[in-house]
Fold:
Amino acid sequence: MNIILLWHMHQPDYVDRLSGRARMPWVRLHSVHSYFDMIEMVDRFPSLRVAFNFTPVLLEQLVELGEGKVIDDCEAWSRIRAEDLTQGQKEKILEHFFRANFDTLIRPFPRYWELLNRRGRIVNFNNLAELTGLFSAQDYRDLQTLYNLAWCGFAACRAYPFLQELRAQGRGFTEEQKNRLLDLHRQIVRSVLSRYRSAAERGQIEITTSPYCHPILPLLLDTNLARRSMPHVNLPPQFSAPEDVRSQLALAQEKMRELFGAPARGIWPSEGSVAPELIPFFREAGFDYFFTDEAILFRSLELDPYWRGKGVDHMVLFQGWAVSWGGAALSALFRERPLSDFIGFRASQNPPDQAANYLLHHFEHICDVAGSPEAALLIALDGENAWEAFPDGGERFLSSLYGGLTTHSRLRTTRPTDYFDHFAPKAELRALHTGSWINADFDIWIGDAEENRAWEWLGRTRQFLRRLGEEGALPADRTAAAMRSLYAAEGSDWFWWYGPDFSTDADLLFDEIFRTHLQNVYRVLGFSPPPYLEFPICAPAAPTPYTAPRLYIHPQLTGRLDNFFDWVGAGTVDVGVQQSAMFQMNRLAQKLYFGFDEERFYLRLDLTACPEEIEVEFLAPQIRRVTAALQPSGSWKVRTERSEDAVRFTPVDERGIAAWRDFFVLMVPTASLGWKANDSVSFFVRLLRERLVLERYPERGTIDFTFPSKDFEARQWFV
Structure:
């Protein structure tokens, strides 16, 4: 069976094109982490065949950073001598230099963890100026160093022993060491593309691409197309720029020819977003095939008169398809979603060998059922963000997965181009659903008030350029620069962070970069930008949205809502608001409640389906693990365990109670947890099935609160 692995590498345009400064550091930091790691891992397995999808705007920034034409703000702040930092620069360092996975990138460095706890795990912008006084010059120098050191992945540490020396030293870094580290970052950035180019030239990998600045092409073509999958959505004033669709595709191929010597044959449309009207655009730009999500296929089969009502078997997914519209035809592969999502969201929460074997077992099962040499399984996902959640950057997991694939007798990794050259699609799709890889619609990027305002302002800027062009007032020498800033603003990432779907403590910065791109359209043409572009579209939000308990609670332990007031005063976590740069669909939980009375801790999870086990991991004040396991009888067994090292656990007792009816409820005596009055409590929750982690709440970090003294309710009364 043909296994096609597609790793999608993309970052939006962080560069203010007028200043030459990148406002965020993710191109550089992902270079020394994921981009370098992923190609080094490919080099370890010469018989492996994989595809990497690079967005052209990411490639452009890699070149600019490597050549020194651009510097990101975080590198600039890092290079300033610690004793020379201004008050404003200190505030920026405290704001930005802890933006990393707490558990895998910060906690392993005791000094880094110490500095994080001194600042606080959540940025408090109201007292950031005050906090700067708590840090000495050496503290800032250590922070400048550790932030950039933590992002160095396993490949960088293997290639440069100096990084291992810094890790061993741990603290007390010098200015010379710090700057040598930053110079290594630049060296790695310069080497990344040549490594991928070499792998492509020897036929081990294929480079596919996306529209230049990663726009949602159906919405760029016409925002009203969103109504096909979201008939009742509230849309902004119509935005329609088919000429930009054509340009973004043509520029993508131009960048591929420039950097890799040939146009790409395959395209991952941004966010897997497609519409039938795009097929001629893809063909015109020189693409032979595209990739998107399985939901698009099955929704399309419902639209296609040939397939409608035929009771389509799920196995139709595992093959190439011919998709035609408007006299043009392309081949297509549709990704297998659950296994792709497993890598992106669950593999890191499980032992790496077990996670890899889980995938290989499912690959074998699909191979058994498919039983054809033409069968193809597409695994496609983000190739950079997922690895931050692995303690070792994904090294052991990838090594196990790649090793299992390259030695398997019936599974064969294949480049997409090789697959289609050998197997012309036999199945034909005469209708194509309009949607994206997320829920087969566009809800993440349009329909919310913030998203619609961004589309409206983008539309006003596009109309401004059109009017100038019609009037013949568009200076030829500045046209390209103005359009380049417009294309950057058309990228999907800005709309990803608008609205309620995703939130981080960098929301306002993403908003600012989007508006800067629009402002630069006017500035490069010699006009003052419209005043409304000075005002933020979004309001800031906490990175982990939860509320602490306000009152003692005394809920019934039935799993039913016997009394509405049972959970009034409990702390709440809206687990539907995701912090990640990646999207996970079909989440099992919608909301989490937690609270206590004088002697018991309570947890409630509103679930769409019941897992086999639910674990509550307490990191403070004592390390405790509470496991509720569903028994064959339908009852739940609850056990509490203790540990000194969070690795080896011993039983405490089984006095907990759990139930699931309308929701899951858990009670554990606080004595079993070792709590005393005024203890600081930190915990997170995991859902498991067959000992594989399905979900974690919150996705990153912990839920924190203080277990109070006896006068808790009396004190709350006066608040």
User: Anything to note?
Assistant: Residues 714-719 have pLDDT under 50 and may be disordered. Residues 205-232+239-429 form a domain with the 7-stranded beta/alpha barrel fold (CATH 3.20.110.20). The radius of gyration is 26 Å.
